[in-house]
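Bug report

Summary: C-alpha coordinates for Epoxyqueuosine reductase differ between web form and batch submission.
Environment: batch mode, default settings.
Steps: 1) Submit the sequence below via batch. 2) Compare with the web form result.

Sequence submitted:
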Amino acid sequence: MNYDQLASNIKTWGQELGFQKVGITDIDLSDHEVQLQRWLDAGYHGTMDWMARHGMMRARPEELHPGTTRVISVRMDYLPPEAQFASNLADTTQAYISRYALGRDYHKLMRNQLKKLGERIEEEVGKLGYRPFVDSAPILERPLAQKAGLGWAGKHSLILDKEAGSWFFLGELFVDIPLPIDKPQTDQCGKCTACITSCPTGAIVENGVIDARLCISYLTIEFDGIIPEHLRSKMGNRIYGCDDCQLVCPWNREADVTKQNAFHRKDIFQDSSLLTLFQWNEPLFLKNMEGSAIRRIGHQQWLRNLAIALGNAPFSPDITEALKTRLGLSELLDEHIHWALAQQHDKNQHLARNTKLDRLVRIIGKGLPRDA
Protein backbone atom coordinates (compact mmCIF):
# COMPACT_ATOMS: atom_id res chain seq x y z
CA MET A 1 0.00 0.00 0.00
CA ASN A 2 1.32 3.42 -1.01
CA TYR A 3 0.24 5.37 2.07
CA ASP A 4 1.59 8.67 0.78
CA GLN A 5 -0.67 8.42 -2.26
CA LEU A 6 -3.56 7.27 -0.08
CA ALA A 7 -3.16 10.30 2.19
CA SER A 8 -3.23 12.57 -0.82
CA ASN A 9 -6.35 10.83 -2.11
CA ILE A 10 -8.05 11.14 1.27
CA LYS A 11 -7.57 14.90 1.21
CA THR A 12 -9.02 15.07 -2.29
CA TRP A 13 -12.00 12.91 -1.35
CA GLY A 14 -12.56 15.02 1.76
CA GLN A 15 -12.73 18.20 -0.28
CA GLU A 16 -15.13 16.54 -2.70
CA LEU A 17 -17.35 15.76 0.31
CA GLY A 18 -17.47 19.41 1.32
CA PHE A 19 -14.56 19.76 3.75
CA GLN A 20 -12.42 22.81 3.09
CA LYS A 21 -9.31 21.30 4.63
CA VAL A 22 -8.18 17.81 5.66
CA GLY A 23 -5.16 16.93 7.79
CA ILE A 24 -3.73 13.78 9.36
CA THR A 25 -2.07 13.33 12.74
CA ASP A 26 -0.97 10.63 15.15
CA ILE A 27 -2.82 10.09 18.42
CA ASP A 28 -0.21 11.29 20.92
CA LEU A 29 -1.77 14.05 23.04
CA SER A 30 0.27 13.38 26.16
CA ASP A 31 1.61 16.95 26.12
CA HIS A 32 -1.93 18.20 26.78
CA GLU A 33 -2.78 15.99 29.75
CA VAL A 34 -1.28 18.24 32.44
CA GLN A 35 -3.05 21.29 31.06
CA LEU A 36 -6.34 19.40 30.81
CA GLN A 37 -6.11 18.24 34.42
CA ARG A 38 -5.22 21.74 35.59
CA TRP A 39 -8.29 23.11 33.76
CA LEU A 40 -10.55 20.51 35.36
CA ASP A 41 -9.05 21.03 38.83
CA ALA A 42 -9.74 24.76 38.54
CA GLY A 43 -13.42 23.99 37.91
CA TYR A 44 -13.35 25.83 34.60
CA HIS A 45 -15.66 23.20 33.08
CA GLY A 46 -18.54 24.47 35.22
CA THR A 47 -21.48 22.07 35.34
CA MET A 48 -20.24 20.03 32.37
CA ASP A 49 -19.59 17.05 34.65
CA TRP A 50 -19.05 14.68 31.74
CA MET A 51 -15.72 16.39 31.09
CA ALA A 52 -14.45 15.42 34.53
CA ARG A 53 -15.98 11.93 34.34
CA HIS A 54 -14.14 11.09 31.15
CA GLY A 55 -10.95 12.68 32.46
CA MET A 56 -7.84 11.79 30.50
CA MET A 57 -9.76 9.73 27.93
CA ARG A 58 -10.14 13.01 26.05
CA ALA A 59 -6.39 13.02 25.51
CA ARG A 60 -6.13 9.32 24.68
CA PRO A 61 -7.93 8.50 21.41
CA GLU A 62 -6.90 4.83 21.53
CA GLU A 63 -8.95 4.40 24.73
CA LEU A 64 -12.00 5.87 23.04
CA HIS A 65 -11.69 3.69 19.94
CA PRO A 66 -9.22 0.82 20.38
CA GLY A 67 -6.97 0.18 17.42
CA THR A 68 -6.83 3.82 16.32
CA THR A 69 -3.42 4.88 15.05
CA ARG A 70 -4.27 8.03 13.09
CA VAL A 71 -6.85 10.79 13.21
CA ILE A 72 -8.08 12.48 10.04
CA SER A 73 -9.09 15.98 11.10
CA VAL A 74 -11.40 18.00 8.88
CA ARG A 75 -12.64 21.57 8.65
CA MET A 76 -15.97 22.78 7.28
CA ASP A 77 -16.56 26.54 6.96
CA TYR A 78 -19.85 27.88 8.33
CA LEU A 79 -19.80 31.69 8.04
CA PRO A 80 -23.18 32.55 6.45
CA PRO A 81 -23.56 35.29 3.84
CA GLU A 82 -25.02 38.53 5.21
CA ALA A 83 -23.87 37.59 8.69
CA GLN A 84 -25.14 40.94 10.06
CA PHE A 85 -22.69 41.03 12.94
CA ALA A 86 -22.75 44.76 13.70
CA SER A 87 -26.45 45.37 13.12
CA ASN A 88 -27.56 42.54 15.40
CA LEU A 89 -25.23 43.48 18.24
CA ALA A 90 -25.79 47.23 17.97
CA ASP A 91 -29.59 47.05 18.00
CA THR A 92 -30.31 45.72 21.47
CA THR A 93 -33.97 45.13 20.65
CA GLN A 94 -32.77 42.35 18.33
CA ALA A 95 -31.51 38.93 19.38
CA TYR A 96 -27.92 37.98 18.68
CA ILE A 97 -27.46 34.30 17.86
CA SER A 98 -23.99 32.91 17.28
CA ARG A 99 -23.42 32.74 13.54
CA TYR A 100 -22.79 28.99 13.60
CA ALA A 101 -26.35 28.35 14.82
CA LEU A 102 -28.27 30.43 12.27
CA GLY A 103 -28.66 27.50 9.91
CA ARG A 104 -29.01 23.75 10.13
CA ASP A 105 -27.40 21.72 12.92
CA TYR A 106 -23.94 20.76 11.68
CA HIS A 107 -23.48 17.58 13.71
CA LYS A 108 -25.43 15.16 11.54
CA LEU A 109 -24.35 16.75 8.26
CA MET A 110 -20.63 16.53 9.05
CA ARG A 111 -20.88 13.09 10.60
CA ASN A 112 -22.58 11.74 7.48
CA GLN A 113 -19.83 13.18 5.30
CA LEU A 114 -17.13 11.74 7.55
CA LYS A 115 -18.82 8.35 7.36
CA LYS A 116 -18.78 8.59 3.56
CA LEU A 117 -15.08 9.42 3.72
CA GLY A 118 -14.48 6.31 5.84
CA GLU A 119 -16.43 4.19 3.37
CA ARG A 120 -14.43 5.63 0.46
CA ILE A 121 -11.15 4.79 2.19
CA GLU A 122 -12.43 1.28 2.91
CA GLU A 123 -13.15 0.79 -0.78
CA GLU A 124 -9.49 1.49 -1.40
CA VAL A 125 -7.82 -0.47 1.41
CA GLY A 126 -10.32 -3.20 2.22
CA LYS A 127 -11.33 -3.79 5.84
CA LEU A 128 -10.89 -0.56 7.80
CA GLY A 129 -11.46 0.18 11.45
CA TYR A 130 -12.85 3.70 11.50
CA ARG A 131 -15.21 5.89 13.50
CA PRO A 132 -16.40 9.44 12.81
CA PHE A 133 -16.84 12.07 15.52
CA VAL A 134 -18.41 15.52 15.51
CA ASP A 135 -18.72 16.80 19.09
CA SER A 136 -20.06 13.34 19.90
CA ALA A 137 -17.38 11.97 22.22
CA PRO A 138 -14.76 13.15 24.73
CA ILE A 139 -12.05 14.23 22.32
CA LEU A 140 -9.51 17.06 22.42
CA GLU A 141 -10.44 18.00 18.88
CA ARG A 142 -8.58 21.30 18.78
CA PRO A 143 -5.16 19.88 19.71
CA LEU A 144 -5.75 17.14 17.15
CA ALA A 145 -6.64 19.73 14.49
CA GLN A 146 -3.55 21.71 15.38
CA LYS A 147 -1.30 18.65 15.10
CA ALA A 148 -2.96 17.79 11.78
CA GLY A 149 -1.98 21.18 10.33
CA LEU A 150 -5.46 22.72 10.22
CA GLY A 151 -4.30 25.76 12.17
CA TRP A 152 -2.93 26.96 15.48
CA ALA A 153 -4.67 27.53 18.80
CA GLY A 154 -5.52 31.20 19.27
CA LYS A 155 -5.55 32.95 22.63
CA HIS A 156 -9.33 32.42 22.64
CA SER A 157 -8.59 28.65 22.41
CA LEU A 158 -10.19 28.32 18.95
CA ILE A 159 -8.23 26.99 15.98
CA LEU A 160 -7.12 29.72 13.59
CA ASP A 161 -6.11 29.34 9.96
CA LYS A 162 -4.42 32.02 7.85
CA GLU A 163 -6.97 31.63 5.08
CA ALA A 164 -10.16 30.91 7.02
CA GLY A 165 -9.75 32.57 10.39
CA SER A 166 -11.86 30.59 12.88
CA TRP A 167 -15.30 30.44 11.25
CA PHE A 168 -15.35 26.67 10.81
CA PHE A 169 -16.45 23.42 12.42
CA LEU A 170 -14.10 20.56 13.20
CA GLY A 171 -14.65 16.83 12.84
CA GLU A 172 -12.54 13.70 13.18
CA LEU A 173 -12.29 10.31 11.57
CA PHE A 174 -10.38 7.75 13.65
CA VAL A 175 -8.65 5.12 11.51
CA ASP A 176 -6.34 2.16 12.10
CA ILE A 177 -3.93 2.55 9.18
CA PRO A 178 -0.40 4.10 9.39
CA LEU A 179 -0.95 7.17 7.21
CA PRO A 180 1.81 9.80 6.97
CA ILE A 181 1.14 12.73 9.28
CA ASP A 182 1.05 16.45 8.52
CA LYS A 183 3.08 19.24 10.09
CA PRO A 184 1.42 21.61 12.56
CA GLN A 185 1.09 25.30 11.71
CA THR A 186 3.08 27.77 13.78
CA ASP A 187 1.38 30.20 16.17
CA GLN A 188 0.80 33.51 14.38
CA CYS A 189 -1.17 35.47 16.98
CA GLY A 190 1.95 37.33 18.05
CA LYS A 191 1.30 40.03 20.66
CA CYS A 192 -2.34 40.52 19.65
CA THR A 193 -4.74 40.30 22.60
CA ALA A 194 -7.90 41.58 20.91
CA CYS A 195 -9.90 38.48 21.79
CA ILE A 196 -8.94 38.70 25.47
CA THR A 197 -9.75 42.39 25.88
CA SER A 198 -13.04 42.15 23.94
CA CYS A 199 -14.58 39.29 25.94
CA PRO A 200 -17.67 40.81 27.62
CA THR A 201 -17.29 38.73 30.78
CA GLY A 202 -13.50 38.24 30.98
CA ALA A 203 -13.84 34.51 30.35
CA ILE A 204 -10.38 34.21 28.73
CA VAL A 205 -8.43 33.98 31.96
CA GLU A 206 -5.06 33.37 30.30
CA ASN A 207 -3.77 32.61 26.82
CA GLY A 208 -5.82 29.72 25.46
CA VAL A 209 -7.62 29.08 28.75
CA ILE A 210 -11.36 29.67 29.08
CA ASP A 211 -13.30 29.70 32.33
CA ALA A 212 -16.57 28.29 31.01
CA ARG A 213 -18.43 29.61 34.04
CA LEU A 214 -17.90 33.13 32.69
CA CYS A 215 -18.35 32.36 28.99
CA ILE A 216 -21.60 33.57 27.42
CA SER A 217 -21.65 30.59 25.07
CA TYR A 218 -21.57 28.23 28.05
CA LEU A 219 -24.10 30.27 30.02
CA THR A 220 -26.65 30.42 27.20
CA ILE A 221 -26.18 26.91 25.81
CA GLU A 222 -24.66 24.42 28.27
CA PHE A 223 -25.82 25.92 31.57
CA ASP A 224 -29.49 25.40 32.43
CA GLY A 225 -29.55 26.97 35.88
CA ILE A 226 -29.79 30.46 37.37
CA ILE A 227 -27.28 32.74 35.67
CA PRO A 228 -25.26 34.78 38.20
CA GLU A 229 -26.74 38.24 38.48
CA HIS A 230 -23.43 40.06 37.96
CA LEU A 231 -23.10 38.45 34.51
CA ARG A 232 -26.59 39.17 33.18
CA SER A 233 -26.07 42.77 32.11
CA LYS A 234 -22.82 41.77 30.38
CA MET A 235 -24.70 39.29 28.21
CA GLY A 236 -26.45 42.11 26.38
CA ASN A 237 -28.70 40.74 23.64
CA ARG A 238 -26.72 37.52 23.13
CA ILE A 239 -29.34 34.79 23.56
CA TYR A 240 -27.47 31.81 22.09
CA GLY A 241 -23.71 31.80 22.05
CA CYS A 242 -21.27 34.65 21.60
CA ASP A 243 -18.92 35.55 18.74
CA ASP A 244 -17.13 38.57 20.22
CA CYS A 245 -13.68 36.98 20.41
CA GLN A 246 -13.96 35.98 16.76
CA LEU A 247 -15.38 39.29 15.59
CA VAL A 248 -12.28 41.23 16.66
CA CYS A 249 -9.74 38.68 15.42
CA PRO A 250 -7.67 40.10 12.52
CA TRP A 251 -7.47 36.68 10.90
CA ASN A 252 -11.23 36.64 10.40
CA ARG A 253 -11.32 39.75 8.21
CA GLU A 254 -10.88 37.84 4.97
CA ALA A 255 -12.69 34.63 5.89
CA ASP A 256 -14.79 33.12 3.10
CA VAL A 257 -18.50 32.52 3.49
CA THR A 258 -19.66 28.92 3.64
CA LYS A 259 -20.30 26.84 0.56
CA GLN A 260 -22.94 24.86 2.46
CA ASN A 261 -26.44 26.23 1.89
CA ALA A 262 -27.48 24.34 5.02
CA PHE A 263 -25.53 26.84 7.13
CA HIS A 264 -27.28 29.90 5.69
CA ARG A 265 -29.56 31.90 7.98
CA LYS A 266 -32.93 30.21 8.51
CA ASP A 267 -35.87 32.25 7.24
CA ILE A 268 -37.32 32.27 10.74
CA PHE A 269 -34.39 34.42 11.89
CA GLN A 270 -35.03 37.17 9.36
CA ASP A 271 -37.09 38.72 12.15
CA SER A 272 -34.90 38.45 15.24
CA SER A 273 -36.85 40.86 17.44
CA LEU A 274 -36.49 39.88 21.09
CA LEU A 275 -40.20 40.41 21.63
CA THR A 276 -41.14 38.24 18.66
CA LEU A 277 -38.92 35.36 19.79
CA PHE A 278 -40.10 35.68 23.40
CA GLN A 279 -43.70 35.21 22.30
CA TRP A 280 -43.08 31.75 20.83
CA ASN A 281 -44.87 29.07 22.86
CA GLU A 282 -43.21 25.68 23.26
CA PRO A 283 -44.88 23.95 20.25
CA LEU A 284 -43.91 26.90 18.03
CA PHE A 285 -40.36 26.91 19.41
CA LEU A 286 -39.98 23.21 18.66
CA LYS A 287 -41.43 23.62 15.18
CA ASN A 288 -39.31 26.65 14.28
CA MET A 289 -36.15 25.01 15.64
CA GLU A 290 -36.50 21.75 13.73
CA GLY A 291 -33.08 20.86 12.34
CA SER A 292 -31.41 23.56 14.45
CA ALA A 293 -28.74 23.12 17.13
CA ILE A 294 -30.72 25.57 19.26
CA ARG A 295 -33.57 23.09 19.75
CA ARG A 296 -31.64 21.06 22.31
CA ILE A 297 -31.57 23.82 24.95
CA GLY A 298 -35.35 23.60 25.26
CA HIS A 299 -38.07 26.23 25.50
CA GLN A 300 -37.49 27.21 29.14
CA GLN A 301 -33.80 27.97 28.62
CA TRP A 302 -34.70 29.84 25.42
CA LEU A 303 -37.10 32.05 27.41
CA ARG A 304 -34.55 32.49 30.20
CA ASN A 305 -31.95 33.80 27.78
CA LEU A 306 -34.48 36.08 26.09
CA ALA A 307 -35.70 37.42 29.44
CA ILE A 308 -32.18 38.56 30.28
CA ALA A 309 -31.83 40.19 26.87
CA LEU A 310 -35.17 41.96 27.31
CA GLY A 311 -33.97 43.26 30.66
CA ASN A 312 -30.90 44.66 28.92
CA ALA A 313 -32.95 46.29 26.15
CA PRO A 314 -34.08 49.95 26.27
CA PHE A 315 -37.23 50.57 28.28
CA SER A 316 -40.47 49.69 26.56
CA PRO A 317 -43.96 49.16 28.00
CA ASP A 318 -44.35 46.30 25.50
CA ILE A 319 -41.32 44.55 27.01
CA THR A 320 -42.69 44.92 30.53
CA GLU A 321 -46.05 43.47 29.51
CA ALA A 322 -44.46 40.60 27.60
CA LEU A 323 -42.27 39.66 30.57
CA LYS A 324 -45.25 39.60 32.92
CA THR A 325 -47.10 37.14 30.68
CA ARG A 326 -44.40 34.51 31.31
CA LEU A 327 -44.44 34.73 35.10
CA GLY A 328 -45.46 31.57 36.93
CA LEU A 329 -44.11 29.05 34.41
CA SER A 330 -41.20 28.01 36.65
CA GLU A 331 -39.14 29.30 39.56
CA LEU A 332 -36.05 29.43 37.38
CA LEU A 333 -37.75 31.53 34.73
CA ASP A 334 -39.41 33.78 37.34
CA GLU A 335 -35.99 34.58 38.82
CA HIS A 336 -34.75 36.00 35.51
CA ILE A 337 -38.03 37.69 34.61
CA HIS A 338 -38.18 39.54 37.94
CA TRP A 339 -34.60 40.70 37.34
CA ALA A 340 -35.51 41.87 33.83
CA LEU A 341 -38.59 43.71 35.10
CA ALA A 342 -36.42 45.49 37.68
CA GLN A 343 -34.00 46.53 34.93
CA GLN A 344 -36.85 47.87 32.82
CA HIS A 345 -38.27 49.75 35.84
CA ASP A 346 -34.92 51.38 36.59
CA LYS A 347 -34.53 52.44 32.97
CA ASN A 348 -38.04 53.90 32.97
CA GLN A 349 -37.26 55.88 36.12
CA HIS A 350 -33.99 57.12 34.63
CA LEU A 351 -35.80 58.10 31.45
CA ALA A 352 -38.43 59.98 33.44
CA ARG A 353 -35.78 61.88 35.43
CA ASN A 354 -33.97 62.86 32.25
CA THR A 355 -37.23 63.98 30.65
CA LYS A 356 -38.03 66.18 33.65
CA LEU A 357 -34.52 67.59 33.63
CA ASP A 358 -34.72 68.39 29.91
CA ARG A 359 -38.09 70.10 30.44
CA LEU A 360 -36.66 72.16 33.33
CA VAL A 361 -33.67 73.20 31.25
CA ARG A 362 -35.96 74.36 28.44
CA ILE A 363 -38.14 76.34 30.86
CA ILE A 364 -35.14 78.02 32.47
CA GLY A 365 -33.63 78.68 29.07
CA LYS A 366 -36.75 80.51 27.88
CA GLY A 367 -36.59 82.89 30.87
CA LEU A 368 -32.98 83.89 30.39
CA PRO A 369 -31.93 87.02 28.50
CA ARG A 370 -30.80 86.37 24.96
CA ASP A 371 -27.23 87.41 25.74
CA ALA A 372 -27.04 85.36 28.98
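Above is the batch result. After comparison, the two runs are identical; trailing whitespace caused the diff. The chain has a mean pLDDT of 94. The first strand starts at residue 21 and ends at 25.
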